[in-house]
Amino acid sequence: MNNSKQEVKEGRKAELYFGKKLEREFAWLLRSATYIPIVPAIMYGFGDVCQPRRDSVTLLETYVIDFIVDLVEKCSEVAHERKRERPDINDLKFVIRKDKKKLNRVHYLLRMKRIIDRSRFAVDRHMLPLK
């Protein structure tokens, strides 16, 4: 079998592994959880009415879950191309590299996580046990 046919075959294996496996495991988990209680608050924060219609909330929740599932699938495909078993933050950055707003938000959140972790470590290190 020549290389191009082998690559296509391996690509199909990756598609089946990552696509179907994510669809069964990860996507099911996301879709089974309901985020309905927090979605109206988010919608209100972005300028919607205080009590949005139930179908609007459900539609937005569906869009968000589909976006997350698609993003994770793309990250998994990139990780597979890089010969890694699991995606990491660099795969996420690669997938969203063209959307500067999302990429800047990821950098900001990572920076804040580092600050929080350092602060937590400093507080834990200086805490003395009570006698």
UniProtKB/TrEMBL annotation:
Classification via Pfam families: TFIID-18kDa
GO MF: protein heterodimerization activity; translation initiation factor activity
Keyword Repressor: no
GO cellular component assignments: nucleus
Keywords recorded for this protein, A-Z: Initiation factor, Nucleus, Protein biosynthesis, Transcription, Transcription regulation
GO terms for biological process, alphabetical: transcription by RNA polymerase II
Domain of life: Eukaryota
Subcellular location: Nucleus
Family indicated by similarity: Belongs to the TAF13 family.
Protein name: Transcription initiation factor TFIID subunit 13
Protein's organism: Galdieria sulphuraria
Highest classification ranks of the organism: Eukaryota, Rhodophyta, Bangiophyceae, Galdieriales, Galdieriaceae
